[in-house]
Amino acid sequence: MSLGNYDIEDLHIAKSAMTDRVYVGFPNSDKTAWNKKKDVTDDFVKAVVDVYGGYTTVFNLNGDEYKLTLTKI
């Protein structure tokens, strides 16, 4: 994907509320739609497995604490 006139600092990752797919791209100025996007769901899931597979980790997000356990079945 060419960056064209986009600034890498504007790159955003998000989950679609309609499809539950994970996208990376450049949102429009009011962040209600994408100007450019790419479905990266498979790459995202693989990265999570590579980082957290076989482990349990605790992390904070927006003031809430979460525990993530990823186990191969």
Estimate nothing, just give the exact number of structural domains.
2
> Structural class of the helix and strand makeup?
alpha+beta
Q: Helix and strand succession? A: EEEHEE
Number of strands: 5
Proportion of residues in helical segments: 10-25%
Largest sheet: 3 strands, antiparallel
> What's the rounded overall pLDDT mean?
92
Describe the fold and architecture.
The radius of gyration is 15 Å and the shape is elongated. The chain is of the alpha+beta class and 73 residues long. Helices cover 16% and strands 38% of the residues. It has one helix at residues 41-52, and strands at 12-15, 22-27, 34-39, 56-61, 64-69. The chain has two domains: 1-39, no CATH class; 41-73, no CATH class. The model has no long low-confidence stretch (mean pLDDT 92). The strands form two sheets. It has a three-stranded antiparallel beta sheet with strand order 1-2-3. It has a two-stranded antiparallel ribbon with strand order 4-5. The protein contains one helix and five strands; from the N terminus they run βββαββ. The longest helix is centred in the middle third of the chain and has 12 residues, at 41-52.
Briefly characterize the structure.
The protein has one helix spanning 41-52; strands at residues 12-15, 22-27, 34-39, 56-61, 64-69.
